[in-house]
Amino acid sequence: NLLEPDYSDNIKNLQLFTLDVAALYPSIRPELALTALEDALNSDTNFSQELKAALHEFTDLIFRESFVTYQGEGYINKEGIPTGNCISRQVADVTMHWLLFKQIKGKMKNWSLVDLWRRFIDDVLGVWLGTVRQFNLFVEQLNKLAEPFGIRFADQQIGKTVNFLDITLTLDTYNQIQYRLYRKETDARNYLRTDSFHPHHVFESVAFSQMIRIIERNSQDSTCVEDLMELKADLSKSGHNSVKLEEIEPRAVVRVLENTHGANRSKESENADNLVFSVQHSSDNIQLKKLIHELGPDIRRICGDIRVIFATRKHPSIGNRVVKNRQLGNKAECPQKTSQKCSAPGCKTCPVLFDLDSKIMVNGMELNLDESLTCKDKHIIYVAQCQQCRAIEGSEDTYFGQTLTPFHIRLNGHRNKFNIDDRALYEHSALSMHCYDVHKDTFSFDCFKFGIVKKTKPSLLDREEARFCAKFRTNVWGLNRMEIKR
Asked: Residue 269: is it exposed, middle or buried by C-beta count within 10 angstroms (0-12/13-18/19+)?
């Protein structure tokens, strides 16, 4: 939509400008974001009051409970709203709109000199009708009005050429906006090497998608050709075949044209009826689709305004025959586990596990165990609770841990640390240290009961352990805050 404005060439002071907010997410105060969200919800008549209240409450909950992990520790935000959260971008967008157009715009003196305003979250692009001095005064007043809200606009640009996101925009001699792909100086232009261990089609997809990106982000053929030549040179350095790249380039041009015309065709065919054919998956389907596409005008002339769609059925596979077979996967033949105990003869872990009907309370909150897991599972988060301290209200009694190895092997490691005569051993476990400090007279591994809380990916163990520690506050009031020797 950047090319839509039609400016007369007799406007002498016409210039482009960009603005950017410094440290957006840390600068947005949660209470300010909630006010902006409430204003946006109140202006929408499609949502019920119950839904609006729920959105407001859940957003506030996310602000209060979000945290990040670093080197095994959990951290909460002291300033601003969470960065990278599932709602961060939407909340920032709503807040910026509320701030600019509900709180600031009406107080600005030179807003009439802004002829075009486009914003992506905190990045602003516009067309300025005044002088550079007037623009600097505009930014100065804008920052003065935004200061009470904790927002400051920085890194402004103004001129005939500016960089905005991943494009460079220029006003030509006719005051029309032209654009081309923008690359930062720090862009190393290193692409996936063809000698890496990936399927062959992946390398072709990289070149194809990058060419499409360049074609779509160039409004002039001359700059597009220059950028494509640079791309092909960079891809060749990564091992791509130059002849193959020349074959891919025209396909990328055709795809961009199809996408451009396809957007218009999709609007025309919104009301068209669908004629669906179910066909078996085959390489011949491509030729069949091309034939139907060529015969499209004749089909519409005979059948009316319809769209022909092919629904492809996959060939039978082992997954269809065995894994997804309802008879083989009958739940009656695969009963759910009702205990975390493996019941293996001589297992030392089973006696110290919680019964699944036990009610486990941690700092006033109930903790649920995963009934589908046993002490032979690995990659899990587990809980340990001192049974002697459990009976004493206000005592620190709970510990959350993780293990890559099977759970019963991890408990053997804890058990080996319970040697009161060897300080070098018991100082290496939070559980044995707790018993030594609080229950020295009854120093025993049997003081604890254990349970498996969750199974997860190995790469997420640190994050999940930190999450449970933060949720149940065992890193504040619990055994996870104990310092042990490594």
From this structure: middle
pLDDT tens, 188-220? Answer: 888 999 888 888 889 999 999 999 999 999 999
Mean of the per-residue pLDDT values of the chain: 85
Question: For the chain, what percent of residues have pLDDT higher than 70?
Answer: 88
Residues of the chain with pLDDT under 70: 1-12, 261-272, 313-338, 394, 426, 482-486
> What pTM, to 2 d.p., does this model score?
0.54
Report pLDDT for 135: 94
